[in-house]
From TrEMBL:
Keyword tRNA processing: no
SUPFAM superfamilies in the record: TPR-like
Protein name per Swiss-Prot or TrEMBL: Tetratricopeptide repeat protein
Keyword Signal: yes
Region forming the signal peptide: 1-26
């Protein structure tokens, strides 16, 4: 490599490493806006979090933080027992950010929503899809849930205490 190319490489590396707005143009203000909505979820202020997070997704549809905002919106609605909205945002994240870690987490959350709704068939299908990829971050958990669902399906129904 000659001196001219070396200087060019150093300049490129310096720009990339020093860039605070790298990654789909996500600057400090944009990051702070996302983090403010996220913090509301972390603090358990679920209802208060949905407005800022939805506004963030609308204002910054190409942000590198959008997949995380979708995940946190789903979690905020789930905590409020608003299952349709929770599932909507988890599915939105899967559809719009399928290869991200958040997309994978949202697939798992959708399976958990099916368990909470006692739709064990759908839950089993969703967990099976996750378990098929053993290198996925939630494959072991999905495998364990599949095992639990199979045990539930095999167990004889229990009589209610009032049936005696």
């Amino acid at each position: 490599m000659n001196w001219k190319n070396s200087k060019r490489l150093v300049a490129i590396v310096a720009v990339v490493l020093g860039c605070t707005s790298c990654g789909n143009g996500a600057g400090t203000a944009e990051r702070d806006e996302f983090l403010a909505g996220r913090q509301l979820v972390v603090d358990g202020k679920y209802k208060e979090a949905t407005g800022p997070l939805e506004a963030f997704v609308t204002a910054h549809p190409n942000s590198k933080f959008c997949s995380r905002a979708g995940l946190f919106l789903g979690k905020a609605y789930l905590a409020q027992d608003d299952m349709p909205q929770a599932k909507k945002w988890f599915q939105w994240t899967v559809d719009n950010h399928p290869t991200t870690l958040e997309g994978h987490k949202c697939r798992y959350k959708l399976a958990m929503c099916a368990v909470l709704e006692e739709d064990y068939g759908e839950a089993g299908e969703r967990f099976a899809a996750l378990a098929e990829k053993p290198d996925g971050p939630l494959a072991a958990e999905a495998t364990a849930w599949q095992r639990w669902l199979k045990k539930q399906a095999a167990a004889p129904p229990q009589a209610d205490a009032g049936d005696e």
